Sequence to fold (814 residues):
Amino acid sequence: MRILETGSGSSAGEIGEDLRRAAAIQEFHFSAGLHCARCDVDYREPVPALFSFNHPLGACPACKGFGRIIGIDYDLAIPDRSLSLAEGAVKPWRTGFSAECQRDLAKFCRALGVPMNIPFAWLSAEHQRWVIEGDPDYGVDEEHQWPRAWYGVKGYFRWLESKAYKMHVRVLLSRYRAYTTCPQCQGRRFNPDALLFRCPVPAGALATLSSAPGALTLADFYALPIRDALAVVEAWRHERAAARRSPSAGPDPLALVLEEVRSRLGFLAEVGLGYLTLDRPTRTLSGGETERVNLTTCLGSRLVNTLFVLDEPSVGLHPRDTDRLVRILQRLRDAGNTVVVVEHEAAVIRAADQVLDLGPGHGESGGHLVFQGSLAALRRHPASLTGQYLSGRKRIESPARRPVAMGASVTTDAPRWLTLSGITKNNLLNLSVELPLGRFICVTGVSGSGKSTLVRDVLFPAVQAALGTGPAGSSPADVPAGSEAVGENEAPRPLANVTLRGHDALARVVLVDQSALGKTPRSNPAVYVGAFDDLRELFAASETARQRGLKASAFSFNSAQGQCERCRGAGFEKVEMQFLSDVLIRCPDCGGRRYREHILEVKIAPPPDGNRAAAHWSVGDLLEATIDDALAWLAGFGVSRPARRAVAKLALLREIGLAYLRLGQPINTLSGGECQRLKLAAHLAGATATGGESTGLDTVVSHSTLFLFDEPTTGLHFEDVRVLVLALQRLVDAGHSVVVVEHNLDLIRCADWVIDLGPEAGDAGGQIVVAGTPEDVAACPASHTGAALRQAPRVTPDPAVKSASNSSGAGARC
Fold:
């Protein structure tokens, strides 16, 4: 502040000069609190909770920190815009109590001259908006309400939401809900007050970005890839270290914080996840990415003298990434820890200091310690199946490869090729892919290269939509707005910009993944593949059952006629513990056999074969038998049609390597790999030819199906992989098409066609590096999959390599 004083002897010129200098002085406004006087903005106290989107203080008030909200998706309400309004373009108004809205629509369309007999997509933008939004100012007064004004599709859903206390209304609403980015925070998750705080970015810290910001909010920092976030933290550390070099500088309170952040980001970059952004939702990570994130948690803990138990950490990892995994495990060991790994990956087994091999078979034939010792001794052990594969005494043989004709058929509408073009999703940018139908196809590439995006999020919904078998909605019922719980149940939807050709050669598409089959213990393998219906008919046809008047329904543990009265057919009782997990105890009345005594008294046996008498089994005995034992027992009922149908379905389980399961084993006790193979068996059983005179995969009908598998070798031993390969090959022999997302080199070698994505992960991936036979991929120097195949035996690179590129020319030329 400056005060000008003038006396009587001051000249006018001097006064004018002083006034001009005073006017040029810049004014500064100050505030005693957290308030910007110039902008008139109040700041909250910068407490840690303000910078957490998981805390009410720091979360966006609209989306509660999730970054997206659930609301009505009008693309689901009007899914087929080639239909006219008269044909029912508005899906919820076609039938049911909402059909009255269709009549209201017709009345208002006649009044305003909106055509109802042309496709909805042909209507003008104004008319489309009117159908969805309703009349302007609807609801402001009585003159702008129904029946005098049009409420639109949006008004219909507003009315439904006012009735959401009714269960059937919540179910209806769930069919048309979908997630959208939060309009208030634009997906940044934070309260606006938290975004008022910024940290300056040192010059040159983000040189890799084309437009590096001068200061970062916490949301901006989270949006950076890990490699760039690490560079920023390193720059902050160096900047603060330089400022603290003077002798008078005290200890830096942020040095420890920055060091911890740098260390953890460094671990993520070290395991090859530098392309991930810090705000990437974990539900969108691939299996390999999730495993590596979990491993960095172990590294970041810096524990010593600790026992780490890892269950198949190589799940979803490419051979290139498996090498990184091995180095991490060795670092944990070298730090003084003990690392126990349950694993089937050969590279991890070879790196172990000691190997414990259990077996020798599955189920009851396993559970024994076959071997314990070094890798060299394991290879020489005669009884170890693992040792036989690691030593090369046993191996997965590659079958004769089916020819794939290259040439004009790839780029035309030939019925034996499935073509997708214009794919833009995640890291796939304007990609075009050609899949030879009737062949065994592998989609490969390093973890995070875009394989699951291509197969699960693009190919599957596109073919579903083209065949008219897509899901009706994408969200379950009765989920409050802002909830993240439905994220696991979102179904992929077809992309509008993808062009699909060649799907006319397909009858259906099936996605077989490793998601859980269900949480109920009442379902079992026999029920899941449909064999239990035939088995119940077999028991109902017995003489004892006819004498007692027992029909097939009496042999169901879900029927009140046959189930145990105490456990209601569950076989156990649940004891609820108030502060602990519930305890399941075997039912004391039925002994866990699920049935009443008079049902278990009905025992049957196949006709005697020579001098050998077959066992008499009740339905409870049959459910306790393994699939192998049940097939051997059912084989004696040669002339029985229910027995033949049951054998046809159960034989599928044996052919995909599940013969060790018990018929009555609850499906909620199965592993992910077992669930995936059981799904495959169920799809095959559903496609079994009527009559079922033959058994196994040969009974599959000739309707061409596109089977999509997401890493089916997860959790499988070498021997299980061999059995799986035989099952997949027989599917293709039956006229179907099989597309497998896979890293297992043995399975890749058995493919007819390989599409390798990459060359790296994240924004450095999403391109087709090479497409061709396994030999073609092995000959490509730009392919990490090819490098792994070259290092493996029995693959000789073919010099005549057929490379593929996407439509924008981004694919590598090998």
About this structure: The radius of gyration is 33 Å. Residues 361 and 367 are 8 Å apart (CA to CA). The longest helix spans residues 226-243. The chain is about 35% helix and 15% strand.
